Amino acid sequence: MAVQHLQSGTQIQETYPFREISKKDFSGKTTKGVRDILAEESMVEIAGLAGFGFPNFPESKKVFQVAYFKVSESYKSIQPLLNGLLAIGQPGKGSVEFYSELDTFAVKFYQSEEQDTVAFLERVFSVLKEEMRFKQILKRVIENQERFGRESQLLKRELFAGN
Question: What pTM does this model have?
Answer without folding.
Answer: 0.67
